[in-house]
Amino acid sequence: MSANVRPQSMERITTEKLANAFIEEQVAELRKQIGTKKVLLALSGGVDSSVVAALLIKAVGKQLVCVHVNHGLLRKGEPEQVIEVFRNQMNANLIYVDAVDRFLDKLAGVSDPEQKRKIIGAEFIRVFEEEARKLENIEFLAQGTIYPDIIESAGVKAHHNVGGLPEDLKFQLVEPVKLLFKDEVRVVGKALGLPDNMVYRQPFPGPGLGVRCTGAITRDRLEAVRESDAILREEFAKNGLAGKVWQYFTIVPDYKSTGVIDGKRSWDWPVVIRAVNTTDAMTATVENIPFELLQHITDRIIHEVKGVNRVLYDISPKPIATIEWE
Ligand code: XMP
Q1: Which of 28, 75, 118, 142 meets the CB 3.0–4.6 Å disulfide criterion with 41?
Q2: 44 CB less than 6 Å from ligand 1?
Q3: So what's the pLDDT on residue 323?
Q4: What is the DSSP letter of 251?
Q5: Is the overall model pTM greater than 0.85, yes or no?
Q6: What is the pLDDT of residue 159?
Q7: What is the average per-residue pLDDT within 168-181?
Q8: CA distance 263 to 286
């Protein structure tokens, strides 16, 4: 797939049969392109990079080197799942980089949202570059580019534009899903045997939980974002909302309010629940979460998440509010 234009004759991949035909064709093409050389992939665990990894593992096995950078801003259980699925189940060549301290140290005291994004993006490239330099004989760089990234110049991924690898580290690009739409990538991922919670996951921004821990990120407040997000996701899954709602998450703002625990006043953070539906992320409406479920989620969050005494429900549509808080 070298051209960047989807042929009109290309059938939409909607079934397992069509996905299998695509996989077979791509595997043959990847083998031809890569031969006996090595390919590098930054594997975040998101749908696109996971599908590219699974395709390449099928095509060239251990010639693929996956690098998973844990920047400390991933959701609960994500790095563990990447290791379990790709290293343990698919037997992939996976380098796991624990860069948590490095990112959080760089972000300490930085409160401007765009500055935070820049630091996260630039540090990510730096960590990836360092790993790439340790490897020998890499000729190809695989990327999870999908068709909307090509056709929408102002698309979601454009937010994350922080430049790329330095000149002396330029590889030939391998982009096996670049002509596919997101729904097709998911059908292909399912046919490749990836777990449902990886294939059908909601969109997750590049800067991760970093933009949901508003203002200057602190480790304890970031933990409150991660734990409350995990509770929200668990309850949405249990109550049939996970596959229905486009994006749902929690935010922990950098201010406190009073509460009362065991007769004593507390001074803790609020957790904000956000759940929205959209088709293109340019406008969004709020999901009407049943009140009893909201109460149940609130009970769990205020009892289970350290440092939190209040839960708020953001019912603002986009516009005027954006989906994320930063
Ligand atoms: P907003 O907040 O602009 O979000 O209404 C629209 C969609 O974009 C995602 N988003 C990002 N994705 N890097 C990303 O990869 C980012 O910096 C970023 N900021 C927002 C957001 O999650 C939503 O799906």
Answers
A1: 142
A2: no
A3: 98
A4: E
A5: yes
A6: 42
A7: 95
A8: 36
Residue 176 in contact with ligand 1 by CB distance below 6 A: no
Contact 187, 18 (CB under 8 A): yes
Provide the CATH number for the domain formed by 212-313 in this structure: 3.30.300.10
**Ligand 1, closest atom to CA 326?**
2
CB-ligand 1 contact for 117 (6 Å cutoff): yes
CATH 3.30.300.10 segments of the chain: 212-313
Q: Are 212 and 325 in contact (CB under 8 A)?
A: yes
Q: Closest Cα partner for 317 from 292, 293, 281? A: 281
149 pocket-lining for ligand 1 (C-beta < 6 Å): no
Per-residue model confidence as pLDDT tens digits over 187-198:
999 999 999 999
How far does residue 265's CA lie from ligand 1's centre (Å)? Answer: 37
Distance CA 119, CA 298 (A): 33
Which atom of ligand 1 is the closest one to the Cα of 318?
5
Nearest atom in ligand 1 to 247's CA: 24
Q: Mean pLDDT score of the chain, rounded to an integer?
A: 95
- What CATH code would you report for 16-199? 3.40.50.620
Give the model confidence (pLDDT) of 142-152 as tens digits. Answer: 999 999 999 87
Q: pLDDT grade, residue 2 (50/70/90)?
A: low
CA pair distance 189, 59, nearest whole angstrom = 14
